[in-house]
C-alpha cells in the first residue's frame, strides 16, 4: 500500500510505480520509470486514484507534465495543485513546465489554458492525429505558487533519475 499524506478529504501520494502507468493509460503516453516522478490523488473512501500527474523529460531547466483524472471526480483542490506545481518549480527548480497536446484534443487544450499554460509553439503534423501543440508555463506565470507553503512541504525525490 502506498504511503499517504494530505487532508482528511484527499490523499496525496508519491508513487511513480502506481501513478505513472495510471496516467499513461489515460493519456496514451508511454511510461518509463527511469526518468519519471509522479503525484497522485486518491479517493479517501476507496483508495482508488482519481487524479495523477506524471513528470518526465527533465533536462535541468524544463520538465514535461502529463495530467489525467477520472471524469467527474473532484480533484482540483488547492492543495493538490500547489503540490503539483511546487515540485517542478520549487523542489527541482525548473524554469519551465512543458505540456504536449494534440491540436484535435479540445478538452486538453482548454484544461491547460485554464491552468495558465500558454501555447508557445505548433509542430505541424506531429500529433497523434493533428498538429502537436506545445504549451508552457514559467514560475512567474504559475498562480498556484501564490498559495504559499500553507500545506507544508510534501517532497518527492530531488529530481527524476
Report what the structure shows:
This protein is of the alpha+beta class and 161 residues long. The protein has three helices and eight strands. The protein has a single domain, classed as 3-Layer(aba) Sandwich (Aminopeptidase), CATH 3.40.630. Strands 1-2-3-4-5-6-8-7 form an eight-stranded mixed β-sheet, sandwiched between helices. Helix 2 links the parallel strand 5 and strand 6. The longest helix has 14 residues.
The percent of residues in helical segments reads 10-25%
- Give the CA-based shape: globular
Order of helices and strands: EEHEEEHEHEE
Specify the structural class: alpha+beta
Overall radius of gyration: 15 Å
Could you tell me how far the N terminus lies from the C terminus, measured between alpha carbons in angstroms?
23 Å
Number of helices: 3
Based on the structure given, which CATH architecture is correct?
A: 3-Layer(aba) Sandwich
What is the CATH class designation?
Alpha Beta
pLDDT < 50 stretches: 1-8
Largest sheet: 8 strands, mixed
Amino acid at each position: 500500500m502506498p504511503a499517504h499524506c494530505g487532508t482528511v478529504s484527499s490523499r496525496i501520494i508519491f508513487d511513480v510505480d502506481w501513478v505513472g502507468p495510471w496516467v499513461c493509460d489515460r493519456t496514451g503516453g508511454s511510461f518509463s520509470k527511469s526518468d519519471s516522478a509522479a503525484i497522485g490523488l486518491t479517493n479517501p473512501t476507496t483508495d482508488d486514484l482519481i487524479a495523477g500527474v506524471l513528470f518526465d523529460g527533465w533536462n535541468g531547466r524544463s520538465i514535461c507534465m502529463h495530467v489525467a483524472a477520472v471524469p467527474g471526480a473532484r480533484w482540483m483542490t488547492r492543495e493538490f495543485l500547489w503540490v503539483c506545481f511546487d515540485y517542478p518549480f520549487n523542489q527541482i527548480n525548473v524554469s519551465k513546465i512543458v505540456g504536449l497536446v494534440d491540436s484535435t484534443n479540445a478538452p486538453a487544450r482548454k484544461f491547460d489554458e485554464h491552468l495558465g499554460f500558454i501555447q508557445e509553439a505548433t509542430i505541424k503534423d506531429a500529433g497523434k492525429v493533428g498538429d502537436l501543440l506545445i504549451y508552457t508555463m514559467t514560475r512567474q506565470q504559475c498562480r498556484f505558487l501564490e498559495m504559499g507553503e500553507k500545506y507544508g512541504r510534501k517532497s518527492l525525490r530531488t529530481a527524476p533519475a
